[in-house]
Design brief:
Elements (H helix, E strand, L loop, with lengths): L3 E5 L2 E4 H23 L4 H26 L1 H6 L14 H19 L3 H26 L11 H4 L6 H9 L3 H4 L17 H5 L8 H18 L11 H20 L5 E2 L2 E2 H25 L1
Helix pairs in contact: 1-2, 1-5, 2-4, 5-10, 5-11, 10-11, 11-12
């Protein structure tokens, strides 16, 4: 697993950038197909796709920088070095929402209608993007011998436990066997390898890939056909699916952003789920009335 697919002279093609480009191309084709089904202007969808991707990337980067402000204050040029990683999906969602609202206002279109077109493509795109994370050795999980009681602590206790583990004798360390057989060992030059050299880790990025593909399939093959549900139906389900997926994956991830003593994704995801469920209930009652 290496981050560079190939290089020609000084030019390097990174898996990370390639997966973002592939996700965009696949996503826009799905959105255009849905636009044709609903007799919606395809030109509006094509332009919206560029707005959504740009605002999403900006939001994801700024969110990550904000949660690591002290580092980027010391290294301001690194803010632009997105090829080094450092994107936060919740920031991407927030940025995408802002971009959608601005574009919807300009075009005089309900932003929730645009969100419905983006829902399944966005979730599938996030799944594709995790392949880039795999090749970069980032968004990695904790070592596979980490006890379940440590992984599923609401307040993250992993590093506290891991420091204790490192001070144990080899005989004591051997008492912690691998809990799953599918752990991955990453190159020592990758973020995962530098943090946990020569240790098999939970492939958290692949867990999320699987869950996101499942969610995107439900959105595309089942919920997409329920056109009578009104604007925002697919979008709010997207938010619920991804937030639920993110809460699960955060238990296994070793490098989540923190909000005081809690994992930031748990806090943000819980808030987004409550908002989305409330929006779906309100929309249903509005249609009934």
């Amino acid at each position: 697993m290496q981050p560079v697919l190939f290089s020609i002279g000084s030019f390097e093609l990174h898996y990370y950038g390639l997966m973002y480009a592939l996700a965009f191309l696949v996503g826009i084709q799905l959105a255009k197909k849905m636009a044709k089904e609903r007799n919606f202007d395809i030109n509006i969808i094509e332009n919206y796709a560029f707005v959504a991707i740009i605002s999403g990337l900006l939001g994801g980067r700024l969110y990550y920088v904000a949660f690591n402000f002290s580092y980027y204050l010391r290294n301001p040029l690194e803010i632009l070095a997105v090829w080094h990683g450092g994107m936060a999906i919740h920031g991407g969602i927030i940025g995408g929402i802002i971009g959608t609202c601005i574009y919807g206002r300009i075009k005089k279109i309900n932003p929730l209608i645009l969100g419905d077109f983006a829902a399944a493509p966005f979730l599938l795109g996030q799944a594709i993007g995790r392949i880039g994370n795999l090749m970069n050795g980032e968004i990695h999980g904790v070592p596979t011998f980490t006890p379940w009681s440590v992984i599923f602590q609401w307040k993250p206790k992993f590093y506290e436990w891991y420091l204790q583990y490192l001070h144990l004798s080899l005989e004591e360390q051997a008492k912690f066997p691998a809990l799953v057989p599918w752990g991955l060992t990453f190159p020592n030059t990758s973020p995962a390898g530098m943090e946990f050299p020569n240790l098999a880790l939970h492939p958290a990025m692949l867990y999320e890939l699987i869950l996101n593909v499942m969610g995107a399939s439900i959105l595309w093959f089942i919920l997409r056909k329920k056109v009578e549900k009104g604007p925002g139906f697919l979008w709010w389900h997207y938010v619920i699916f991804y937030s639920f997926n993110r809460m699960i994956i955060s238990f296994f991830r070793a490098e989540d952003l923190m909000f005081y003593s809690f994992r930031a994704p748990h806090v943000i995801s819980a808030i987004l789920i409550v908002i989305s469920v409330a929006a779906l209930i309100f929309s249903r009652r509005k249609r009934i009335l």
